[in-house]
Amino acid sequence: MNDRLLGVAALVFAAFLTWFGHDLEAPFSYEPVGPKAFPLLLALIIALCGLRLVFKGGNDVEANPPGANLRIASMVAALAAYAFFFQWLGFVISTALMSLVVGKLFGGGWLKTAIGAVLMGIGLFLAFDKGLDVVLPAGILGDLL
Fold it and tell me: Transmembrane region positions (predicted)?
């Protein structure tokens, strides 16, 4: 795979984001920009990066080191599980589990990774739910949060 192929893939992804984000409408107006601004801005940035890769020229890329493809596939599976269990388990538990898996995939020790995962789940919940007033699912923790 070279840079040009990655650039074309980025352009296709940017087009998908534009198509998806263009029709987003909030049921009520709660901010002047609306929900479509983020995916459209993200699509613009990805498209600009993709164009840069397409026109810059292609460089050969080294093959992944042994075991990297398995770690990448594990990461994709963990992200899919995170999305699947997010509502049921809730933000804190699903984020902590996802952080634990990612930490172990990147070679972290069990104790440090577990402590970091729990702190990340709780800390991000407090920051978003309590600090920024973004409603996040409590899941099986229910009224404890």
Answer: 36-55, 76-103, 109-128
Residue 50 token pair: 């993709």
The percent of the chain in helix, strand and coil, each rounded to the nearest 5, is 70, 0, 25
CA atoms within 13 A of residue 144's CA, in its CB half-sphere: 11
Residues of the chain with pLDDT under 70: 1, 26-35, 57-61, 145
E-strand stretches of 68-108: none
SS3 of 36, please? coil
Query: Does pTM top 0.90 for this prediction?
Result: no
| Cβ neighbours of residue 138 closer than 8 Å, sequence gap 6 or more | 90, 91, 92, 144, 145
Q: Report the 10 Å Cβ neighbour count for 43.
A: 21
- How high is the pLDDT of residue 23? 76
